[in-house]
Specification:
alpha+beta; elongated
Length: 123
């Protein structure tokens, strides 16, 4: 008798899970009348192209000035091993994120867009 109840209830659960109507993933649907956002249409750049962009940024006075200011505030620059380079697929924008660390260990990202410093924010 116990096995029959287990079989009935498990089949009821399966029927309710797979037999329900509607789309359970509503976050992926675009509401009517709204366009798809192209602000996140970016490509990660790697390899030789990334190295070239990072090398050009390291030569700029903007990076050197920002680095001096950030060092005085207690921010440690982690080096170029973990640098992220993104290229926007629609707009002519190159984004370079350089990981930095505060004295208390908080990890942040210094962001440069087309060679101009935009600020330090969360990773």
């Amino acid at each position: 008798m116990k096995k029959i109840f287990t079989l009935l209830f498990s089949s009821l659960v399966v029927l309710l899970i797979f037999g329900s109507v509607g789309n359970p993933v509503k976050a992926s649907e675009i509401p009517e009348g709204e366009e798809n956002c192209i602000c996140h249409d970016v490509t990660f750049i790697t390899g030789a192209e990334k190295n070239k962009i990072v090398a050009n940024l390291l030569k700029t006075d903007a990076l050197k000035d920002v680095r001096k200011e950030q060092k005085a505030e207690g921010i440690k620059w982690n080096g170029v091993n973990d640098v992220q380079v993104l290229k926007h697929n629609v707009y002519p924008v190159t984004i370079v994120g350089i990981p930095v660390t505060f004295e208390d260990g908080t990890a942040l990202m210094a962001t440069f867009i087309n060679g101009e410093f935009m600020g330090v924010g969360p990773r």
